[in-house]
Structure formats: structure tokens, C-alpha cells
From TrEMBL:
Superkingdom of the source species: Eukaryota
Keyword Signal belongs to the record: yes
UniProt name for this protein: Uncharacterized protein
Keyword entries, A-Z: Membrane, Signal, Transmembrane, Transmembrane helix
Signal peptide: 1-23
TM annotation in the entry: 872-893
Species of provenance: Patella caerulea
Matching InterPro entries: Cupredoxin
Length: 911
């Protein structure tokens, strides 16, 4: 151990002596293999020891992060800042060291970074270098990779000389940090490995401004002119295009065509050429001094000829023809070759130059926060309606707020009317001007943009924040509008190519409201589903599919969210999935829902919260340890039949042993739950279950928020995880229900047995669907049920239309009801079911109107009620109070419309 430290110190001493302490870098999230940021390579004397400079000491299994394919935000930090040192990120596999995939190259340095004292170079805690932290979103390829790692390089280019480049084999210093990850692919990525992410351009999420570009020049000669003309071309591998460039001076007039050609016969004089591409020249190809022509979709064989110096540029004018071979002059941002570079970053560590923000952004995805390593961000949604039809959804907006910027997605169904402006509007009292979105970016009814909006973001979480969307036509007529709410969303497809947008909200009745707008697919048989982990279907919403102009629209509510669904929603593990089956082949578009914001649980008074965070000792996460502490989340639901459902998730468990949870009130142990190791995810423990017949005492304690949950590892001395349960109540929005016995399985059949006890309410209908040789017998007593004694049982006669399938519908009565099938009742497992039925006063014949009010509107209303106005404007307060009273009355009379649209409440426009 001592030796190890001596070695470290010595090493560090050498580094600083030799190279005046250059750019040290390490991952923060995903967690690095080691907290060391001083691992470097400098050829020929200081090669890297092993792939990550840590020799063979890396143990994959002790720490790695599980990641999903697609955009993924990573966090890294510099412990010693070295200006102008670019970064590069690649993906490697421990089991296949031959190959690697370049994910993002030539990431410019933040020269405004600084290092604070708390920022240690080689030991934990990590993540304290706040002024030299970087966040950037990369794209995880859709492959199977069980033992992968991400590698970041910081290349120190000596900037003594402008032309210095650092290549593969140069003597430049390169610092390394690696972070272990396991990629869990979607269905289409199964069985694929690193060989399918070799093409760098496919690993990008747009037009990366620092992508490789090859520059060519051509001496264009003609019979008619003695001196050659200098032509040029750029080959862009990512865009897959050749961009020809000519001086305008020379070709002021008479220019007709520009082409690319190859030599057919070089023996003739002049040689004969084959024109393989040609493009007429139009006025918009001219700028002030140059003429630009783009040749798109260049096939591989043509780009290869370009590299080999076999491609010619030819120019046809009205009087003559010029030709010259394209010779490579130089390359920029070439793979593996680095030059000094830097750009502008935000204080939070995100790229913030015009390439990434605003109208001119070419790679907005780099700053989109997503995945477990991104800092917390808040998500907003809006249902867009036509001006004169409040019930008719014609578009959706989704927005993520982070740092000082907004990421905005808009999907409109009816984009035939020309749109002149899209504005986000704050409350009038805020004094903030409307925020204009770049309409020019709206393509095919779809817009994605990132804008800096610090002034507006300052008001986040208050009534002054952005409140509504207004979309206007050229003559400034309001075309569509919608209220902005904090909510949940998911975009379908890739971030740079979205095929649909789903927006979600939780309502006062604890329903999950959904609105999905997606492109028509032309798919023979498709399903749209909400799925939890392991492809468990939460809701099949395919039946809600309706045509809306050129798109599909799906709208509705998912009622009775189970504790499992709520837990997975809060863990960010629910996906919106479009499945398409065609000729027995399946394709799917999978998109994750954003996590619900903290406000659902923290900011709304008198509204129920179902989730509790479990942290060591009940305090926040302990940072900076060699291993991340386990932490967890649990959800509790008191369902319609007063069954207490629970679902518990504990992640980051590296120590051995089983976990045990206890639910206690102030003095009693209520329940002991043994957690089981997740079969699908490592380091994860789970439990789910239910506590039927919750006693009045338990229900009272739930209502008073007196319960605590502790999770311990009895075999290990570790700090228990702890969380105090929030107030848990039953929903006020309960409908009567038809319960089909064995619905998820094979209905009422032996194959479905054993049956779980069914908990139901008086008035619910119980339905048995069965085939020949099966009966529905209702037992008289519990004893008869237990012993399968059919003597006193009543046979319920079913109805049939086809003599194949029979149906019995039974209206449930209070107490316990017992059913079995005659000749199979006492088989193993037994073919019988018990149904426990309770009386409730909560049944509402139809869904009550206020069940569908969004919780955001509840929050807004509470804040409006509390708001006592800016002190300076006395008269405004009078107006405000009157407004609140009007609003309140209004709320009683016209809840539904108040909820649907704020404009019905025009007497109260200031907010
Ligand atoms: C998964 O991989 C397939 C092809 O390999 C790709 O078309 C699809 O978009 C990928 N899905 C995700 C979520 O990355
Ligand atoms: C760097 O090395 C790799 C393999 O070691 C090679 O494929 C690549 O072409 C090299 N790049 C340069 C610029 O030499
Ligand atoms: C790298 O440089 C060393 C010494 O300068 C040389 O021996 C070696 O062949 C070079 N490797 C490559 C791949 O160019
Ligand atoms: C490139 O390949 C395509 C087919 O693969 C062929 O049709 C075309 O002629 C080739 N182009 C050249 C310039 O060789
Ligand atoms: C979803 O529902 C539709 C229509 O009811 C059905 O055709 C489809 O098979 C269902 N999909 C799944 C995956 O269950
Ligand atoms: C599906 O099969 C039919 C005939 O079997 C064929 O006409 C059709 O083109 C196929 N569709 C696709 C997408 O392969
Ligand atoms: C019903 O039972 C009879 C005799 O026990 C048997 O022959 C027949 O195959 C059974 N039918 C079904 C559908 O199970
Ligand atoms: C069902 O069976 C009954 C009695 O055996 C018979 O009268 C009736 O026609 C049958 N119905 C069908 C649809 O086969």
C-alpha cells in the first residue's frame, strides 16, 4: 500500500516536471475505473500500461453503469486545466480489444475553466471540480456489449506552433480515463457488436461541427486561357457530400454546369473524360465572392476515387470547358489527429457556442440532457388546440429546461396553414416579453430547437414562468395555442429525427393522461404501447389511434396506476413503444418517458404522493466514496379495494447478502419484506407485493403519514436505507369495474391456475370465460372452498353462442365469494378462486370532472390563491382578489372547461 502511494507521488512529480502539469481529465459519470486523472501516455518513453493505463487491475464487475442505446449525457472533469486540449470519446470492449468505436471526436476545450482547491487529482471524492466540469451528450450505439468501457482522451497539443498536430504515434501527452458500462440494446440491437459502430458518422447525433473534412484543390485549365484557375472542393464524410467551390470573379458570366468526372482514355490528347455528376448552376449558388455547388449522396466508389486522386472537377461555360484533377491539400478534424482548439461553454459546463444553441445550431443534441448522468432538469408540456376548438388537439409541445436554456420539441398535425410565429408567453405580471421560436426550423410539422433563455428560466417554478404557447399566421391571427405545464414527455425516434411526440400528465384522480402524435406509418398491423421494464405492458393504447390530417393522434387516460407502474415512472423506466408487424417481421420505435419532476411530490398541497426516496440514514446521497452507496425508491398505493400495494427498488448494491425491508409505524412492525436480486439488472434488489385487508388502523396511519420504511442488509454492517412514507390515501376517483377472471392468462381455465385472490368492490362484475369440461361453481362456505366440496355449491349456468366458449357474469356481493370448477377443483394447483368484496362509498357512476384536472393546474391554482400581488400595484391586488373569486366560482361551475383551457377565464388574463 505504502509502495503504491510512493509510486503515485513519484509519478505525479515526474509529470509536473516534464510537462508543466497538463490537462488531467477523468470521468465523473459514468463512474471512472479509478479516481486518477493523471494517467497519461507520452511516446516513446511513457506508453500506456494496458488499455486504460491501469494495467490489469480493473475489475469490471465491481463497478459499471448500465446504459441504453441512444443519446446519453456524460460528465467529466479536468483536475488541471490545459487550454486548447481537445477531447475524444470512444467505446471499447474488454472482450474484443481489436475494435473500438469512435463516438465523439475533437471536442473543443473550455478555456474559461478553472480548478478549485477541492478538486483532487488522484483520489476520491470526485465530482468537485465544478468550474472545470463538462457535460456532453453522446450517442450510445444499439449493440450488445456486456463488458464495455467508455474512454476519454485529453490530447495536449503543444501550442508553440500553429501547425502542430498530434497523431497516433506522436510524442504529445494524452491523458486517459475510462468508465465501465454495459449496453442493454433494444430488440434490433441484439447480437450486434462493436463491428456495427465502426462508421463514425453513424455514431453522431447531427452535423457535428468538428467532423472530418478533406480539402482539395484543382488547377482548372482550358484551351482558351493561358493561366489556370484555382478551384477547390471539400469532402464531408458525415454529410456524404462533395462541395465544389469556385472564384466568382472568373466565372462572372457564361457559367453553365459544374461536374465531377473521371478519365476514360488518357492516351488521347486531350484525354477523354466521363462526367459522372453534373449540376447546373443557379443564382442561389453564388455568394459575394464564391460559387458553391454541392454534390450529395456520394457513393463509396466515387469518394474512394477522390482520395486516390482520380476525380476531376470540370466547368462548362458558354465558351469553353475547364478541367483539373482534385488534389488533397489538407484535412481538418481528421480522426486521431488533433490540433489546439477551444470554444465557449456555459457556467454549468455545456457547449454554448452558436453551433449548439439557437437558429444556427447544427448539433443541438450535444446539450440535450438525458440519462442517469445528466444533472436534474425540468420538463414541460403543452397540448396545442386550434383557436376555436378547445377539445381538439392538433399539436404538442415538449420542453426541457436546464442550465440557462430551453430544449423545445413541437409536433403539429395541421401544418398546411402557413405559420408566421411561435411564441412562448409568460404571465403579464412578470414583465417578460414573449419568447420567439425560430419558425424557420419547422419542417414537416416538426421543430426541435435549443435557445438560451436565462431571463425566463429565472422564474422557473413560479407563476411568472412561461405560461402559454401561441402560434400565429402571417396576418397575426391566432391559429393554435395551449397552456404550458410541467409534465412528462417522450419523443419517438432519434433526437435529430423525431417521428412523434408523446406528452403525459398526472391528474387529480391519479390518472396518467396521455396524448401521442405520430407520423402515419403505413404499417400493416401496429401497436402503440406503454411498457415497463422487461417488456411488461402497462397499457395497450392502440385502440385510441385516430387519424388526424397526415398523422395519428392517441389520447386518453390510464387509470388505477399500480405501485409498480408508479415506481417505474419515477425511475424513468417506462417507454412509449410503436410496434409494427409486417410479413412476420417486427420493427419497433422505443422512446423513454422523462421522469416526473420533484414538484409532484414536494409542491402541491393536499395532493397525494406515492413515492418515497430511500437514502442512507434518510439523508442525501453520500458523495465521494470509492463506491456509490446503495439508494432506492419505493411506491405505495392504497388501491380501490383498500389493498396496500408496494414496490421497492434498491440500486447500487455491491456487497453480498440479501436485503430486508421493514415497514413500521411509530411502535409496531407492520410488515417484513425480503427483497430479491433482480434477474435482469445487476446490483439491483426489488420487491413487490400487497397487503390485503388493510386494517382501519393501518389506513389511519397511512393517512397521517406515520409509516417508515427501513432497508437493511442483515449480514453486513452497512447503514440502513431509510425513508418516511408520505401521506397515502385512496383515490377519490373510483369507477365500477368488470373483472375477467384470469384475464392476463388463459381466462377461466386450468392453465391459469393457481388464481390470486381477487379484491373487488360491491357492484363490480365478475366474468368467467371458459370452454368445455369447465364449470363455474359457487361454494357455499369457506370450508367447502378449502376442501373443494361441491355438494352444496351452486352451478352458474353460462351463456354461449357457438357451443365452444361460455360466459358467466356474476354481480358481486359483500364479503368473500368462492368459486371453483367441478372436476378440476382439487387438482394441483387447484382450479378455484376466492374473491373478497368490500363496500365503498367512493364509487362514482361516471368519472368525476375533477378527476381529469391536471396536477399542474391544481398547483397553479394553489399558488394563485396564495399570491398577494406585488406590493407596489395596489389596484392590481383588488383585481387579483376579484379574479380569484371569479375563478373560484368558475371553477365550481365549469371545472371541465376551466381545465381544458385557460382562455375561458378571460377575466383573469394577467397570470
Ligand atoms: C437499434 O438498432 C437499429 C439498427 O441496428 C436502429 O435502427 C434503431 O434505431 C436502434 N434503436 C435505438 C433505440 O437506438
Ligand atoms: C491510428 O492508428 C490506427 C490503428 O492503430 C489506424 O487505423 C489509424 O489510421 C491511425 N491514424 C492515423 C491518423 O495515423
Ligand atoms: C511509432 O513510432 C515509433 C518510434 O518513433 C516507431 O518505431 C513505430 O513504428 C511507429 N509506429 C507506427 C504505427 O507508426
Ligand atoms: C460506382 O458503383 C456503382 C454501382 O455499384 C456503378 O453503377 C457506378 O458506375 C460506379 N461509379 C464509378 C464512377 O465507378
Ligand atoms: C394491442 O391492441 C391491439 C388492438 O386491440 C391488438 O391488435 C394488438 O395485438 C395489441 N398488442 C399487443 C402487443 O398486445
Ligand atoms: C409482404 O408480402 C407481400 C406478399 O407476400 C408483398 O407483396 C409485400 O411487398 C411484402 N411487404 C413487405 C414490407 O415486405
Ligand atoms: C373433456 O372431457 C372428456 C372426458 O373427460 C375428454 O374426452 C375431452 O377431451 C375433454 N375435452 C376437452 C376440451 O378438454
Ligand atoms: C349448440 O348446441 C345446441 C344443443 O346441442 C344446439 O341446439 C345448437 O344448435 C348449437 N349451436 C351451435 C351454434 O352450434
Amino acid at each position: 500500500m505504502l509502495n503504491y502511494f510512493r509510486h503515485l507521488v513519484a509519478l505525479h512529480f515526474v509529470v509536473c516536471l516534464v510537462a508543466h502539469c497538463t490537462g488531467h481529465v477523468r470521468f465523473v459519470c459514468p463512474r471512472p475505473q479509478s479516481p486518477r486523472s493523471d494517467v497519461f501516455q507520452q511516446l516513446p518513453n511513457h506508453p500506456l500500461d494496458g488499455q486504460c493505463g491501469l494495467g490489469g487491475s480493473v475489475q469490471f464487475d465491481s463497478e459499471y453503469k448500465e446504459v441504453s442505446p441512444g443519446p446519453f449525457t456524460i460528465r467529466f472533469e479536468e483536475t488541471v486545466v490545459h487550454n486548447d486540449s481537445p477531447f475524444s470519446i470512444s467505446l471499447h470492449d474488454f472482450d474484443n480489444s481489436e475494435k473500438s468505436c469512435l463516438l465523439l471526436d475533437h471536442i473543443p476545450h473550455n478555456n474559461a475553466a478553472g480548478v478549485r482547491k477541492q478538486c483532487h487529482i488522484s483520489r476520491y471524492p470526485i465530482g468537485h471540480c465544478s468550474e472545470s466540469t463538462y457535460y456532453i451528450t453522446i450517442n450510445i450505439p444499439n449493440i450488445t456489449c456486456k463488458k464495455c468501457y467508455l474512454q476519454i482522451k485529453s490530447v495536449h497539443v503543444p501550442n508553440s506552433n500553429q501547425d502542430t498536430r498530434c497523431g497516433n504515434n506522436s510524442s504529445c501527452q494524452v491523458y486517459y480515463s475510462c468508465a465501465n458500462i454495459r449496453i442493454r440494446p433494444t430488440a434490433s440491437g441484439h447480437g450486434k457488436g462493436l463491428e456495427s459502430c465502426q462508421k463514425y458518422s453513424f455514431n453522431l447525433l447531427g452535423i457535428w461541427p468538428y467532423r472530418p473534412q478533406k480539402y482539395f484543390k484543382a488547377e482548372l485549365k482550358s484551351d482558351k486561357s493561358a493561366s489556370p484557375v484555382a478551384g477547390a472542393a471539400v469532402y464531408d464524410e458525415v454529410l456524404n457530400q462533395i462541395h465544389a467551390d469556385l472564384p466568382r470573379k472568373v466565372f462572372q458570366t457564361g457559367l453553365m454546369k459544374i461536374g465531377l468526372s473521371t478519365v476514360r482514355n488518357s492516351n488521347t490528347t486531350p484525354p477523354e473524360y466521363d462526367v459522372i455528376y453534373s449540376s447546373p448552376v443557379s443564382p442561389h449558388d453564388y455568394d459575394q465572392s464564391r460559387i458553391n455547388i454541392k454534390f450529395r449522396d456520394v457513393p463509396d466508389n466515387v469518394s474512394r476515387m477522390l482520395m486516390d486522386g482520380e476525380l476531376y472537377l470540370n466547368i462548362i461555360t458558354t465558351t469553353t470547358e475547364y478541367i483539373g484533377v482534385l488534389d488533397m491539400k489538407h484535412e481538418e478534424f481528421e480522426k486521431g489527429i488533433y490540433a489546439p482548439m477551444h470554444t465557449q461553454y456555459s457556467k454549468g459546463g455545456w457547449l454554448s457556442s452558436p453551433e449548439f444553441l439557437g437558429v444556427k445550431a447544427v448539433y443541438p443534441a450535444a446539450t440535450y440532457p438525458t440519462g442517469p448522468c445528466s444533472p436534474p432538469s425540468r420538463h414541460y408540456i403543452s397540448h396545442l388546440h386550434l383557436r376555436d376548438d378547445l377539445t381538439d388537439t392538433v399539436g404538442a409541445l415538449a420542453m426541457t429546461v436546464i442550465d440557462d436554456r430551453l430544449h423545445i420539441f413541437i409536433k403539429l398535425t395541421d401544418h398546411k396553414q402557413p405559420i408566421a410565429s411561435i411564441q412562448l408567453i409568460s404571465s403579464q405580471l412578470s414583465g417578460l416579453l414573449p419568447l420567439n421560436l425560430p419558425v424557420s426550423k419547422l419542417k414537416n410539422g416538426y421543430l426541435f430547437t435549443v435557445i438560451q433563455a436565462s431571463k425566463w428560466i429565472k422564474e422557473i417554478g413560479t407563476l411568472m414562468f412561461l405560461k402559454k404557447v401561441e402560434i400565429r399566421t402571417v396576418d397575426n391571427k391566432l391559429l393554435m395555442d395551449g397552456l404550458i405545464e410541467e409534465g412528462i414527455y417522450s419523443f419517438m425516434g432519434d433526437i435529430d429525427e423525431v417521428h412523434g411526440l408523446g406528452i403525459f400528465q398526472i391528474t387529480k384522480g391519479r390518472f396518467l393522461q396521455y396524448t401521442v402524435i405520430m407520423e402515419k406509418t403505413g404499417c400493416e398491423k401496429q401497436s402503440v404501447l406503454l411498457e415497463g421494464p422487461e417488456s411488461i405492458i402497462i397499457s395497450n393504447i392502440t385502440n385510441q389511434l385516430t387519424s388526424k390530417y397526415d398523422d395519428y393522434l392517441l389520447e386518453g387516460y390510464i387509470k388505477e396506476l399500480s405501485s409498480d407502474t408508479i415506481l417505474n415512472l419515477w425511475l424513468g423506466k417506462i417507454s412509449l413503444i410503436m410496434k409494427c408487424e409486417e410479413n412476420k417481421t417486427f420493427t419497433e420505435v422505443v422512446s423513454k418517458l422523462t421522469r416526473p419532476g420533484k414538484w409532484y411530490c414536494a409542491d402541491i398541497e393536499n395532493e397525494h404522493c406515492s413515492v418515497v426516496e430511500l437514502t442512507p440514514g434518510g439523508f442525501g446521497e453520500v458523495e465521494g466514496e470509492a463506491f456509490v452507496q446503495p439508494s432506492g425508491l419505493a411506491a405505495f398505493v392504497l388501491d380501490r379495494a383498500k389493498v396496500l400495494q408496494y414496490s421497492i427498488f434498491i440500486g447500487g448494491v455491491i456487497k453480498r447478502g440479501l436485503l430486508e425491508a421493514t415497514l413500521t409505524d411509530e411502535d409496531h412492525l407492520i410488515l417484513t419484506i425480503t427483497l430479491h436480486r433482480s434477474s435482469a439488472h445487476d446490483h439491483v434488489f426489488e420487491a413487490r407485493g400487497q397487503l390485503p385487508q388493510s386494517s382501519p388502523d393501518l389506513i389511519k396511519n397511512l393517512l397521517l403519514g406515520r409509516l417508515n420504511l427501513h432497508v437493511t442488509n442483515p449480514g453486513q454492517v452497512t447503514k440502513p436505507l431509510f425513508g418516511a412514507l408520505p401521506v397515502i390515501t385512496q383515490s377519490e376517483c373510483i369507477d365500477s369495474k368488470t373483472l375477467v377472471v384470469g384475464e392476463d392468462k388463459e381466462k377461466w381455465s386450468y392453465d391459469s391456475s393457481p388464481f390470486d385472490t381477487i379484491h373487488a368492490l360491491v357492484g363490480d362484475k365478475l366474468v368467467f370465460i371458459y370452454t368445455a369440461n369447465t364449470t363455474v361453481h359457487k361454494f357455499k362456505t369457506r370450508e367447502d372452498y378449502e376442501t373443494c366440496n361441491l355438494q352444496n355449491a351452486v352451478k352458474l349456468e353460462g351463456s354461449t353462442r357457438d357451443n365452444i366458449t361460455w360466459t358467466v357474469t356474476y354481480i358481486l356481493t359483500p364479503g368473500s365469494n368462492y368459486f371453483g370448477s367441478d372436476n378440476q377443483c382439487d387438482l394441483s394447483p387447484p382450479f378455484k378462486v376466492s374473491v373478497s368484496v368490500i363496500q365503498t362509498d367512493k364509487i362514482v357512476s361516471e368519472s368525476r370532472d375533477d378527476c381529469t384536472i391536471s396536477l399542474y393546474q391544481v398547483w397553479r391554482q394553489q399558488n394563485l390563491n396564495r399570491y398577494d400581488g406585488p406590493n407596489v400595484v395596489g389596484s392590481a391586488i383588488g383585481g387579483l382578489i376579484a379574479g380569484i373569486i371569479i375563478l373560484f366560482l368558475f371553477h365550481l361551475v365549469e371545472r371541465r372547461h376551466q381545465n381544458k383551457h385557460e382562455r375561458t377565464n378571460s377575466g383573469f388574463q394577467r397570470f
